[in-house]
Amino acid sequence: MDSLTPKYQEPELEDLFGDPVLLAVLKRDGLTIDDVKEVIQRYQEIKLCQRVTLN
Fold this sequence. Notes:
The chain is an all-alpha fold. The chain contains three helices and no strands. The protein has one domain (13-54). The longest helix has 22 residues, at 33-54.
């Protein structure tokens, strides 16, 4: 098996956002699903900018 091939399929984000354990941890830490989505969006924008800059 290729080392880059995931051994298990990762869950979709929307599935994770419905997980009661994740929701409890977010609540404990004072975060919301929107906070997580914002971080993901910023990360994707940074990665996109890096790809455009390299090309």
